[in-house]
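pasting input
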Amino acid sequence: MRARLLEATVELLVERGFAGTSTTLVSERAGVSRGAQLHHFPTKNDLVVAAVEHLTERRGAELAEAVEQLPGGSKRTSAVLRMLGDHFSSPVFAAALELWVAARTDDALLAAVSPLEQRVGRETHRLTVAALGADESEPGVRELVQATLDLVRGLGLAQTITDDTVRRRRILDAWADVLDKELAR
Amino acid sequence: MRARLLEATVELLVERGFAGTSTTLVSERAGVSRGAQLHHFPTKNDLVVAAVEHLTERRGAELAEAVEQLPGGSKRTSAVLRMLGDHFSSPVFAAALELWVAARTDDALLAAVSPLEQRVGRETHRLTVAALGADESEPGVRELVQATLDLVRGLGLAQTITDDTVRRRRILDAWADVLDKELAR
């Protein structure tokens, strides 16, 4: 029942945004009584934060599995970047973005979202370093990994209002060429 | 009066977000009667799109002036990137982000926001190419300029919920070193 509520919440965040997501709509879509819902999640904020956390963790696990399937060799960096680019352009990113933007002007939501964002950010950074085989003890490498993640976040934002897939791949392939040269130094 | 309405709208978007911005609050803050406001801007969407357009144009002009003041020589690329990073981390970016995210789930708003975003995107791209002295006829250069703008957009998003200034400058300085090498090829 908890999982059904969380899935319904993410669906509604993606379809209707934060403002258009109400606890009533969530209980209707999940087919869960209001009483049961309130027992699990007393407020809308509890529900949306738990939903994005749940989906982020599931997608994080999927990302970790996807890394295992990536090719080695000269195409690896490009494959890692495309994987990250697709990850940050998924509907789950749109749901997280809704939460993030709502938190900007809602202190209670911000207090719940900030630790989640920090944790997810650290995990994604670690996964990216490992997938790229980057050595962060080399000067500048940590910053380029961070730049890569900020880049895919920016590309994810562009994707929310337009289909940006072709442009995104061209940019990430060019970035991969640069990254290969820099990481090999 | 028109300018007062637009300034008040942007202030409210920054302070309260898209959902928290109402035409009533705007007319109160601007000190403009409801009738006069409705004459200029019949709907909330008219008002918010005009407000973000107005501010984006003003900030675009400020950016173009700031480019004129930048140093030449070896520090130029870093100065250009810091200028762009600060631009995309300003309150005006937060107001534009509110509009962008609301447009994701509002087709009428999206129809108004998309052409604005495309125009602003083209102008910012042109300004960045000129400021960096980049030659886009060289292979890969256009993609690296686009990547730079997607990077500062991602950094702008990070800035909305945390003070990210120090991290942003480190990342942009590292990127400036790479960009200098790539553009000199």
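fyi DSSP finds nine helices and no strands in chain A.
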